[in-house]
C-alpha cells in the first residue's frame, strides 16, 4: 500500500487564522497530540517572525516524539544578501530542528512586484538557501509559493524554480496553491507535468478560498504527490487551509492509501475537538467525519433504514474516525466514546457495566450545562473515576471569598482570596494576594493544601482561557473556563462552567488540584 506523508502546519499557517491564537503551551500540547495521531511533520512556526515561535522551538527540544519531525519554517535569503549573513537563515538554523522548510517565489509577478528583484536573482536565492541549509539539518523542504498561478502565468519560469531547488538538494518540492483559486482539473494537469519532469518527491499545499482545498490536495495525490500539507479543522489565513481532518480519512478510507494507522484514525474526532478547545473556537457541528451532526439521523425513514443497515445513510462507520452515530429522536449511542476514553486513561471497565450508562448520563447532563471536556481531559477522568467509585477525596471544600480593590486611578487593582478547606477534620483558612482574582485563588488553594500535601508545591498554572457561551445575555452570560496546569512530569487540562466567572475558575482550579492528588496517590513508592 502506497504511503502518503502528512505534514501539519496548524501551529504556523493555522495560527494565522483571524480568530486563532495559540500560546506556547497550547502549541506544545497540540504538537504532542499530532504525534499521537501519526503526523509525520509538525511545522512549529517561523523563528524569524516572533519571539513566541523561537521560544516554542527551544522548549520543544525536551519533548520526545514517536514519529513526528518538528519543522522550522522560513523564507529564502533576501535579494542581494549573502546567505550566511541572512538573519532569517540564521534563525532557522538556531531553531535546531531536524527539518527546515523554506518558501520561495515561483510566480514571476511576485518576483518583480513583491521581491523587487530579477528572475535570475530569485533563482540564486533559492539555490543558495537550499544548499546552505542542507549542511545543518537532515531534510530541507522547498515550498514553491504561488506555484499554480505562477505556472499559469509563465510555465517555463515556474519549472525553472523547481529545477533550481532540485539541483540544490531539496528533499521535497511542495507545490502551493497559495491564493486558493485553482480548480482540481488544473491541479491535476499541472501536478502531472511536474511529476514527469522532476525526480524529487513532490508535496501539495492548498488553500480553501474556492472551497476546493481538500479536493485539490486529493487530486494532487492521485497524480503522484506523496506528501499533503494542511491544518487541523482547516484553520488558516483568509478562508483557511486544506483540512487534514477530512484529508486523512479520505486518503485511507476512500483512496486506500496508508497515512496513519486505523487506531490512530479513531482519534480524529478527539484531535479535532482538542484543537477547537485550545483555539477557543466553537466546534463546527456539521464538519464532515468528526462533527456532532456528521452521523446524526432525524428523519423517520432514515432512522428506520440505519437500524437495519447503517450503510443505507452513512458513507463510513463513524467509529472508524472516533465519532458516534446519533439518532436524535432517541439520543442513541455514545457508549463507545466512554470505553475509548477509559482505555486511554488506563481505566478497566466492561462495556456492559451499568456504570458506563451512568458516566454517559452524567456527561450529557454536564454538556447541557455548557461543559466541554476536549482539552480538559483531567476533569473528564475525574468524572469517570467518580462514577466508578475510584476517585479519592483528600479535602472538603468549606468556602472561598475573593476581594478586588482599586484605591487610586493610577494604581493596579489588588486581588485577595481567602480559602476555607477541611482536611481530616482540620479546618484550614488561608489568604493570598495575586495578580487578578484567579491567580489569588490559585495561590490560596495551593497554600492551604500545601501544609497537608507538599506535592502541591510542584503544581503550576500554565494557561487560562474563558469562553462566553451565551453572548446575548451580556454580563449575565454563562462562561466556560479552561485551565492548563502541570508539574515537573506532566500537564493536564480542567474545566469549569458558571454564570459567575470566579466560580467557573474555582471549579477548574479544584479539579486541577484533585487530579494532581489522585494521580500522586496512585504512584508507587519511590516514583
Write a structural description.
39% of the residues lie in helices and 20% in strands. With 527 residues, it is α/β, with parallel strands linked by helices. Strands 1-2-3-4-5-6-7-8 form an 8-stranded parallel barrel, surrounded by 9 helices. The protein starts with a strand and ends in a 6-residue tail after the last helix. 44% of the residues are buried. The model is unreliable at 329-333 (pLDDT under 50).
Tally of strands: 16
Biggest beta sheet attributes: 8 strands, parallel, barrel
Which CATH class of the largest domain?
Alpha Beta
CATH superfamily of the largest domain: Aldolase class I
Query: How many separate domains?
Result: 3
CATH architecture of the largest domain: Alpha-Beta Barrel
Report strand %. Answer: 15-25%
Unreliable stretches (pLDDT < 50, length at least 5) are 329-333
Number of helices: 18
Q: Output the strand order for the largest sheet.
A: 1-2-3-4-5-6-7-8
Determine the structural class based on helices, strands and strand pairing.
Answer: alpha/beta
CATH topology of the largest domain: TIM Barrel
Rounded to an integer, what's the Rg over CA atoms? 26 Å
Distance between the termini: 43 Å
Q: Helicity range of the residues?
A: 25-40%
Mean of all residue-level pLDDT scores? 91
Describe the structure concisely:
This protein has helices at residues 24-37, 51-59, 87-94, 108-113, 119-133, 147-153, 155-168, 184-197, 213-222, 244-254, 262-265, 268-278, 300-308, 335-345, 354-369, 377-387, 437-450, 501-521, and strands spanning 5-8, 41-45, 69-75, 99-105, 139-145, 172-177, 201-206, 227-230, 296-297, 326-327, 396-405, 414-423, 426-434, 460-468, 479-486, 491-498.
Amino acid at each position: 500500500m502506497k504511503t502518503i506523508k502528512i505534514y501539519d502546519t496548524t501551529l504556523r499557517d493555522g495560527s494565522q487564522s483571524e480568530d486563532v491564537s495559540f500560546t506556547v503551551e497550547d502549541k506544545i500540547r497540540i504538537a504532542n497530540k499530532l504525534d499521537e495521531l501519526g503526523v509525520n511533520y509538525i511545522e512549529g512556526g517561523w523563528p524569524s517572525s516572533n519571539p513566541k515561535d523561537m521560544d516554542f522551538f527551544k522548549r520543544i527540544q525536551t519533548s520526545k516524539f514517536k514519529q513526528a519531525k518538528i519543522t522550522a519554517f522560513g523564507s529564502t535569503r533576501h535579494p542581494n544578501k549573502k546567505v550566511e549573513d541572512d538573519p532569517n537563515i540564521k534563525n532557522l538554523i538556531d531553531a535546531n530542528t531536524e527539518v527546515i522548510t523554506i518558501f520561495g517565489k515561483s510566480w514571476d509577478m511576485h518576483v518583480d512586484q513583491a521581491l523587487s528583484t530579477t528572475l535570475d536573482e530569485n533563482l540564486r536565492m533559492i539555490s543558495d538557501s537550499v544548499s546552505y541549509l542542507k549542511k545543518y539539518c537532515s531534510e530541507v523542504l522547498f515550498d514553491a509559493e504561488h506555484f499554480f498561478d505562477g505556472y499559469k502565468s509563465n510555465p517555463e519560469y515556474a519549472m525553472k524554480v523547481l529545477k533550481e531547488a532540485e539541483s540544490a538538494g531539496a528533499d521535497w518540492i511542495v507545490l502551493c496553491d497559495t491564493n486558493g483559486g485553482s480548480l482540481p482539473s488544473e491541479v491535476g494537469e499541472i501536478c502531472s507535468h511536474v511529476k514527469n519532469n522532476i525526480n524529487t518527491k513532490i508535496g501539495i499545499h492548498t488553500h480553501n478560498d474556492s472551497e476546493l482545498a481538500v479536493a485539490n490536495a486529493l487530486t494532487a495525490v492521485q497524480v503522484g504527490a506523496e506528501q499533503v500539507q494542511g491544518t487541523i479543522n482547516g484553520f488558516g489565513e483568509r478562508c483557511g487551509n486544506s483540512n487534514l481532518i477530512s484529508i486523512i480519512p479520505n486518503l485511507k478510507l476512500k483512496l486506500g492509501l496508508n497515512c496513519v494507522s486505523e487506531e490512530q484514525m479513531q482519534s480524529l474526532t478527539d484531535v479535532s475537538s482538542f484543537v477547537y478547545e485550545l483555539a477557543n473556537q466553537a466546534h463546527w457541528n456539521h464538519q464532515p467525519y468528526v462533527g456532532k451532526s456528521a452521523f446524526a439521523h432525524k428523519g423517520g425513514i432514515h432512522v428506520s433504514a440505519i437500524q437495519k443497515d447503517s450503510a443505507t445513510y452513512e458513507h463510513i462507520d463513524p467509529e472508524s474516525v472516533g465519532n458516534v452515530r446519533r439518532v436524535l429522536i432517541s439520543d442513541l449511542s455514545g457508549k463507545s466514546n466512554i470505553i475509548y476514553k477509559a482505555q486511554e486513561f488506563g481505566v478497566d471497565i466492561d462495556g456492559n457495566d451499568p456504570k458506563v450508562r451512568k458516566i454517559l448520563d452524567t456527561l450529557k447532563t454536564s454538556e447541557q450545562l455548557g461543559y466541554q471536556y476536549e482539552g480538559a481531559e483531567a476533569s473528564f477522568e475525574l468524572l469517570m473515576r467518580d462514577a466508578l467509585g475510584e476517585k479519592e477525596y483528600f479535602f472538603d471544600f468549606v468556602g472561598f471569598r475573593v476581594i478586588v480593590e482599586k484605591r487610586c486611578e493610577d494604581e493596579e487593582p489588588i486581588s485577595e482570596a481567602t480559602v476555607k478547606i477541611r482536611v481530616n477534620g482540620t479546618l484550614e483558612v488561608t489568604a493570598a494576594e495575586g495578580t487578578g482574582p484567579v491567580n489569588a485563588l490559585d495561590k490560596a488553594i495551593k497554600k492551604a493544601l500545601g501544609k497537608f500535601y507538599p506535592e502541591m508545591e510542584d503544581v503550576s498554572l500554565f494557561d487560562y482561557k474563558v469562553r462566553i457561551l451565551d453572548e446575548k445575555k451580556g454580563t449575565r452570560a454563562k462562561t466556560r473556563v479552561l485551565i492548563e496546569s502541570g508539574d515537573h512530569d506532566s500537564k493536564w487540562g480542567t474545566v469549569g462552567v458558571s454564570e459567575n466567572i470566579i466560580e467557573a475558575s474555582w471549579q477548574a482550579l479544584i479539579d486541577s488540584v484533585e487530579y494532581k492528588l489522585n494521580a500522586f496517590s496512585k504512584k508507587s513508592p519511590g516514583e
